[in-house]
Amino acid sequence: MNNSIKIALAGNPNCGKTTLFNALTGSKQYVGNWAGVTVEKKEGKTKYKENDILVTDLPGTYSLSPYSIEEIVARNYIVEESPDVVLNIVDATNIDRNLYLTLQLVELGKPVVVALNMIDLSEKRGIKIDYDKLSNILGVPVVPISASKNNNIGKLMEEVVNVFNDKLKYSTINIKYHKGIEKKIKEVQAVIESDERFNKYNKRWMAIKLLEKDEEVSKKLDNDLSEFVKVSEEELEDIEGLIVDGKYELIGDLVSKAVKKPSSKIITTSDKIDKVLTNKWAGIPIFAALMYFVFWSTFNIGGIFLDIIDVFFAETLSGWVSVALESIGVSSGLHSLIVDGIIGGIGGVLVFLPNIMILFFAISILEDSGYMARVAFIMDRAMKKIGLNGKAFIPMIMGFGCNVPAIMSTRTLENEEDRLTAILINPFMSCGARLPVYTLFAAAFFQNNAGLVVFSLYILGILVAITMGLIFKKTLFKSENSAFVMELPPYRIPTLKGTFIHVWDRVKGFLIKAGTIIFAASVALWFILGFNFSGQAELADSFGAYIGKAIAPIFAPLGFGNWQASLSLLTGIIAKEVVVSNMAIMYGMGDAAMGSASSFAANLSAAFTQLSAYAFMVFVLLYTPCVAVIATVKRETNSLKWTLFSVFYQFGVAWIVAMIIYQVGCLFI
């Protein structure tokens, strides 16, 4: 029989949930946002025997209490959408803490299958788990797996299908609380039993949530019922704490019966590696060396493919299209639009695709291995200097990929002033969209030291972010430092499949942007560079030249006061890749007759010196971010004031830093 099954993956952060999601769905997944919020939503499809399975990857969360957007999203999906099976991923190396979420899921009364992940690591640590006993006590199937090695995934899916088929017979453990609490649970449950509005919910779970003063559940009550619950809450002191204690008592009982741990702590490979990588003296130099290697690889390996792709766009494709257009007699204007505007503009960006892929591949390896979590720990001391903690460095690291999800991830910061500081400094972290600009200028002006030059930009971005954070903490936000407690996941060997999926997700976004935003910008730029109020015009007399010349004096003290650079920076607010596509058009890369990147580099060399080129890259690094980031800042701060402040202060910081670099450099060069 062919069934359609909806399953939801639920688990703590760092439990291997995403690894299992990738193992199940492969490339058959798509990413969006949950309705009404900006939390990422991942769904994918898989097939097991005759069953079509839709897999939803819920946000990683430690509990189903509505204290964060992620927790609300995860719980609302399970409660309101009613997936056929909830697949709870539990980290076998940290089973005590992970079981708290498991008990909450069981208490919901939904069909649950527990995937006991990282079982290979737990065995290496001497942890022995009686899966059958654990399953019997919980009343749900428990399947040991290793998602990273794809071990026992078939058995796991078999249990999911079995639970789906037998869900009418499904029964789970009832968590027994203190007698006084049980009495109150039954009283509240009896009152809501008669209300038809709550028929779709587990009444016992609702009663417990109401006694815990759960705001989301309390909103569903009318005034009379709310008053009854309030009286019940007041009759027992600290009822929330007693309910939590009841769960942890059961977890302690579960672990004592089903889990055996070694009497003495085993020094794991992760512990040995951490002694070096998180050492207070060696940690930051090692991080710097790794990042330098990443950028060295980005340029030296990516450069192998750059010329090939460049020749394809600038000569081969442009030549084919040019001949085809001439053969059908298209006008010179349309010919120029297609060859110079579209192919030149988009090709000018896509030529750097190998560099971007290598950068994303390296960052994905560092993230999936568990090293990036250590970087937050390493940077905690430096972050404390600016009144933040290492947790605030995690969004900064994410900014190396894209500032939009990085800014969204600041929600994990509990202190509102810390969060606002993190949002305001995050755009200084160099996103992947800026890389084509660096690659272009580094290849043209710093061929022998391209990796080192770009590495210096990333380090400069971090230093400027930390400096501005310090200024904000001394002036605008003077709250006390918040504590930083973080669980370091064990080191893992990234899977090729998982890494490919991560890289493809990011590259796909880049390609979509090339086919939409950059395409539109290239067409628009071709128009403003080819026309003025009198009609078709020479480049120097075009709309674009007028606009560029009007704003060029602003950039003259920075060393690049030509109208082409000025116009490129203005359009770069749409998307940073547009800076390159526009320069490709204006400096002749889009013209097939101009040849390849060597001609383009020669044209750039006539407009920039090494010093002004570096100042230009610094300005691109630090100035006003793209419209997507600006919109995210507005959404996350819910404040036009802070959004406008972000736009203008970042432009000001970029102008000052680039000006200092250029003017001081002129004294010595």
Automatic annotation (TrEMBL):
<feature type="binding site">
    <location>
        <begin position="36"/>
        <end position="40"/>
    </location>
    <ligand>
        <name>GTP</name>
    </ligand>
</feature>
<protein>
    <recommendedName>
        <fullName>Ferrous iron transport protein B</fullName>
    </recommendedName>
</protein>
<feature type="transmembrane region" description="Helical">
    <location>
        <begin position="386"/>
        <end position="408"/>
    </location>
</feature>
<feature type="transmembrane region" description="Helical">
    <location>
        <begin position="510"/>
        <end position="531"/>
    </location>
</feature>
<dbReference type="InterPro" id="IPR003373">
    <property type="entry name" value="Fe2_transport_prot-B"/>
</dbReference>
<dbReference type="Pfam" id="PF07664">
    <property type="entry name" value="FeoB_C"/>
</dbReference>
<keyword id="KW-0410">Iron transport</keyword>
<dbReference type="InterPro" id="IPR011642">
    <property type="entry name" value="Gate_dom"/>
</dbReference>
<dbReference type="GO" id="GO:0005886">
    <property type="term" value="C:plasma membrane"/>
</dbReference>
<keyword id="KW-0479">Metal-binding</keyword>
<keyword id="KW-0342">GTP-binding</keyword>
<dbReference type="GO" id="GO:0015093">
    <property type="term" value="F:ferrous iron transmembrane transporter activity"/>
</dbReference>
<feature type="binding site">
    <location>
        <position position="23"/>
    </location>
    <ligand>
        <name>Mg(2+) 2</name>
    </ligand>
</feature>
<dbReference type="InterPro" id="IPR011640">
    <property type="entry name" value="Fe2_transport_prot_B_C"/>
</dbReference>
<dbReference type="Pfam" id="PF17910">
    <property type="entry name" value="FeoB_Cyto"/>
</dbReference>
<feature type="binding site">
    <location>
        <begin position="117"/>
        <end position="120"/>
    </location>
    <ligand>
        <name>GTP</name>
    </ligand>
</feature>
<keyword id="KW-0547">Nucleotide-binding</keyword>
<feature type="transmembrane region" description="Helical">
    <location>
        <begin position="281"/>
        <end position="299"/>
    </location>
</feature>
<dbReference type="InterPro" id="IPR027417">
    <property type="entry name" value="P-loop_NTPase"/>
</dbReference>
<dbReference type="InterPro" id="IPR041069">
    <property type="entry name" value="FeoB_Cyto"/>
</dbReference>
<dbReference type="GO" id="GO:0046872">
    <property type="term" value="F:metal ion binding"/>
</dbReference>
<feature type="binding site">
    <location>
        <begin position="57"/>
        <end position="60"/>
    </location>
    <ligand>
        <name>GTP</name>
    </ligand>
</feature>
<dbReference type="InterPro" id="IPR005225">
    <property type="entry name" value="Small_GTP-bd"/>
</dbReference>
<keyword id="KW-1133">Transmembrane helix</keyword>
<keyword id="KW-0406">Ion transport</keyword>
<feature type="binding site">
    <location>
        <position position="22"/>
    </location>
    <ligand>
        <name>Mg(2+) 1</name>
    </ligand>
</feature>
<keyword id="KW-0812">Transmembrane</keyword>
<keyword id="KW-0997">Cell inner membrane</keyword>
<feature type="transmembrane region" description="Helical">
    <location>
        <begin position="420"/>
        <end position="446"/>
    </location>
</feature>
<keyword id="KW-1003">Cell membrane</keyword>
<feature type="binding site">
    <location>
        <begin position="11"/>
        <end position="18"/>
    </location>
    <ligand>
        <name>GTP</name>
    </ligand>
</feature>
<feature type="transmembrane region" description="Helical">
    <location>
        <begin position="452"/>
        <end position="472"/>
    </location>
</feature>
<dbReference type="InterPro" id="IPR030389">
    <property type="entry name" value="G_FEOB_dom"/>
</dbReference>
<keyword id="KW-0813">Transport</keyword>
<feature type="transmembrane region" description="Helical">
    <location>
        <begin position="337"/>
        <end position="366"/>
    </location>
</feature>
<keyword id="KW-0472">Membrane</keyword>
<feature type="transmembrane region" description="Helical">
    <location>
        <begin position="543"/>
        <end position="560"/>
    </location>
</feature>
<feature type="transmembrane region" description="Helical">
    <location>
        <begin position="607"/>
        <end position="630"/>
    </location>
</feature>
<comment type="similarity">
    <text>Belongs to the TRAFAC class TrmE-Era-EngA-EngB-Septin-like GTPase superfamily. FeoB GTPase (TC 9.A.8) family.</text>
</comment>
<feature type="binding site">
    <location>
        <position position="25"/>
    </location>
    <ligand>
        <name>Mg(2+) 2</name>
    </ligand>
</feature>
<feature type="domain" description="FeoB-type G">
    <location>
        <begin position="4"/>
        <end position="166"/>
    </location>
</feature>
<feature type="transmembrane region" description="Helical">
    <location>
        <begin position="642"/>
        <end position="664"/>
    </location>
</feature>
